[in-house]
Write a structure and sequence with these properties.
Blueprint lengths: L16 E4 L2 E7 L7 E7 L6 E3 L6 H13 L9 E3 L5 H4 L2 H8 L2 E5 H11 L3 H15 L6 H6 L12 E3 L12 E5 L8 E5 L4 E5 L22 H13 L5 E4 L8 H25 L4 E2 H7 L11 H20 L3 E3 L7 E4 L20
Parallel strand pairs: 4-5, 5-6, 6-7, 10-11
Antiparallel strand pairs: 1-2, 2-3, 3-4, 8-9, 9-10, 12-14, 13-14
Length: 362
């Protein structure tokens, strides 16, 4: 197959592209965010185009989506549906406005749809109190908590879904075969979408060419889920789909989903090994916040703004939980804040023949 590739450039240099097979990409800006833009995709069908994601809810983003679709010969009023790969605002934010303009349906996986319903059912005060208590239990110092909870810059929750998807479903795309591949980790209901009649995979944030998606756990101290374990299993799954071209939500188009998925898995396995070594060196158990402050990020911890410290803590918590599931560390009972301690008897070689795959949750 012929594959398109666009290098990562500033948003101002991006343009809508005809990718062939009745697919267009439209860059939609994320104002004030270093990611720059979301790549929204339009798939043609006899009943009208279906969008994969919609972009950030902002007037500039709406204009870019509307005008970009026009370059492709698409009136936004003709959109038949919007499939949201996951509920985050740079993907789902404009879905409601597209629905208002066209009467299109909005579809997302049932797990993310349930989260959206929950978020729409509670006010900002309740969400703020929830976050403050979560940070306290993670061991965030009092001086950090007010900034983290008040400067998150979050948007309103996205529009509720009209249709709830499950793994293996075919999206309502007449004349085409667009199949749902449930890939939890980045969110519980993240999906990739396999355009089977074109050998392409819309990867959302699951597999990106140059960066790795945020894998966090919320609340930070949950002990009944394993998002990183889910993510690693999902990487393995997309790697079995064959030689597919990737159409990601950020950065650029690339040709080999399986190879990149393997790279991302290796990145997290190495990160887990380093984290276990870090805890093993400490005489005293560490809180989630203390752990995050000791891990390596793209900037020193002291330079991370409050919102990014909170995200780093969520990612640290997901890695701690994955190690706990593997039997590499233990959570001290009754801790408030919760603390973790490495088990010295565990080594990376103890992962077993499955190469580090998760075992059943306790």
């Amino acid at each position: 197959m012929t594959r398109s590739r666009t290098a990562r450039r500033a948003y101002a240099e991006q343009r809508p592209l005809d990718l062939g097979f009745g697919v267009w990409s439209v860059p939609v800006p994320i104002p004030g965010n270093p990611l720059g833009y979301t790549l929204v995709y339009a798939i043609d069908s006899p009943r009208g185009p279906v969008l994969v994601d919609a972009g950030w809810n902002h007037p500039e983003a709406w204009a870019a989506l509307r005008d970009g679709l026009a370059v492709a010969g698409i009136d936004v009023a003709a959109v038949h549906g919007v499939v949201v790969t996951h509920f985050h605002p740079d993907h789902a934010g404009l879905a409601g406005q597209v629905r208002e303009a066209s009467g299109a349906w909005i579809a997302m996986h049932e797990a993310d749809a349930a989260l959206v319903d929950m978020m729409n059912g509670v006010g900002p005060d309740i969400r703020g109190a929830f976050q403050a208590d979560m940070l306290r239990r993670a061991g965030a110092p009092p001086e950090d908590m007010p900034d983290v909870t008040t400067s998150d810059g979050r948007q309103r929750p996205p529009a509720p879904a009209d249709r709830r998807l499950r793994d293996g479903d075919l999206v309502d795309l007449p004349g085409r075969k667009l199949r749902v591949v449930h890939t939890p980790g980045h969110t519980p209901g993240h999906v990739c979408l396999h355009l089977e009649d074109a050998d392409r995979l819309f990867t959302g944030d699951h597999v990106l060419p140059g960066i790795t998606p945020h894998i966090g756990i919320y609340p930070f101290d949950r002990d009944d889920i394993d998002p990183l374990g889910d993510f690693l299993e999902s990487l393995d799954r997309v790697g079995t789909l064959g030689d597919l071209g990737a159409l990601p939500a950020h950065e650029w188009i690339f040709p080999d989903v399986a190879a990149r998925a393997a790279e991302i898995r290796l990145h997290h396995e190495e990160k887990l090994d380093r984290l276990h070594a870090l805890l093993a060196e400490r005489a005293e158990p560490l809180t989630i916040w203390e752990t995050a402050a000791e891990m390596t990020w793209n900037r020193p911890w002291s330079e991370l703004p409050p919102m990014l410290r909170g995200m780093a803590a969520g990612e640290a918590a997901a890695h701690l939980r994955a190690l706990e599931v593997r039997g590499a560390l233990r959570r001290l009972p009754g801790g408030d804040p919760v603390r973790f301690q490495a088990l010295e008897s565990w080594t990376p070689e103890a992962r077993g023949e499955n190469g580090g795959h998760r075992r059943d949750l306790p």
